[in-house]
Amino acid sequence: MPFSQVVDLKVVPGLVSVIVTTYNRSDALAAVMRGLSAQTDLRFEVVIADDGSSPKHRDAVLALADFAQFSVVHVWHPDAGFTAAKVRNLGVAASRGEYLIFLDGDCVPEKDFIAQHRRLSGERQFVNGSRVLLSQELTRQAIDGTVPIVGQSRWFWWKHWVAGRASRFIGTWRLPDGVYRVKKQFSWRGIRSCNLAVWRADFAAVDGFDEIYVGWGHEDADLVLRLHHAGILRKNGFCATEVFHLWHKEASRSQESANWTRVKQRALSAITRSEIGYSQSREREHVVVTRLR
Q1: How far apart are CA 251 and CA 214, in angstroms?
Q2: 126-135: b or e for each residue (b if 16 or more CB lie within 10 Å)?
Q3: I need a surface site. Which of 126, 172, 177, 262 has the fewest CB within 10 A?
Q4: How far apart are CA 137 and CA 91, in angstroms?
Q5: Helices (H) and strands (E) in the chain — how many of each?
Q6: Beta-carbon neighbour count of residue 154 at 10 Å?
Q7: What is the CA 247 to chain-centroid distance, rounded?
Q8: 219-229 and 256-267 helices cross at what angle (nearest 10)?
């Protein structure tokens, strides 16, 4: 489907769009899709934002979508290195939800993930979720299905935390909403686009992710900074929206210094809009969009 046909889709009130970034890791994406299939709140769609994966991975995405109980869209562009900001913007452009949740393709959601994000959503607020890091051993078991990680008890996570196989034991703890979750002052701490939710209107108001950030790092901090400058308040999603982060080798951080320098400079300004942002998504070429379900 030509990309120009999908960038002006009608927004569906009440629908959540989960934008899942992926790159050549089909086994992890399968675990994420299993977590999404177990959700208690099914009023959502999934847009798989593919940062230039191989044909083999793209075929795996097609196979995964066959078993989904929700709408699945696959957005792909040619491999140009780590361009997470760009592919997330492309994913949003192909989505229909009024509320957006960004999720990485190696972060498995608990079964109430959508419900908890919906519960915490507030006007002119975005939700910064957190994660539980899994060890290489527990990741292998989660991927091959020998140790299911979704729907487990607090005792399960306590045991794995004590054994050093999970970074936290509070992944299934749930605390109520309240003003204590809202941060009025900007903070760099804990910013992660692997688990972040924002109203589509607020995302568009700051022109989404800034694609000037290439290579690993800090495109998420830049988005959060500009949302803050625009008066959109940050809400902590701890003990509500945690995801289980599958182990992997660290990506190259060769661009981190340049990206970090840029975002720190922007912190001294009042900038709200991207230099190369979401509004330019409709101008993209060589983007392939496939509505799978």
Answers
A1: 13
A2: bbbbbbbebb
A3: 177
A4: 32
A5: 9, 12
A6: 12
A7: 16
A8: 10
Q: How confident is the model at residue 165 (pLDDT cuts 50, 70, 90)?
A: very high
Q: Give the whole-angstrom CA distance, residue 62 versus residue 109.
A: 20
Q: How many residues does the chain have?
A: 293
Q: Where are the alpha helices (DSSP H) in 147-190?
A: 154-162
Please write the tens of the pLDDT for every residue from 21-66: 999 999 999 999 999 999 999 999 999 999 989 989 888 988 888 8
At position 203, the amino acid (one-letter code) is: F
For residues 243 and 102, is the Cβ–Cβ distance under 8 A? no
Q: How are strands ordered across the β-sheet holding 71-76?
A: 182-183, 233-236, 125-128, 195-199, 97-104, 12-22, 44-50, 71-76, 288-291
Contacts for 285 with CB less than 8 Å, ≥ 6 apart:
3
What's 166's DSSP letter? B
Give the pair of three-digit tokens for residue 261. 């320098």
Phi, psi dihedrals of residue 124, rounded to the nearest 5°: 55, 40
Nearest to 133 by CA among 107, 156, 101: 107
Instruction: Tell me how far CA of residue 216 lies from CA of 35, 110, 134, 254, 258, in angstroms.
Output: 26, 26, 21, 7, 10
The residue type found at 182 is V
| Tokens at 24, concatenated | 């050549």
Q: Calculate the alpha carbon distances from 201 to 4, 107, 113, 165, 273 in Å.
A: 20, 25, 22, 39, 13
| CB burial of residue 63 (10 Å; 0-12, 13-18, 19+) | exposed
Q: What are phi and psi of 15, to 5 degrees?
A: -85, 135
d(CA 149, CA 145): 9
How many angstroms from the chain centroid is the CA of residue 267?
A: 23
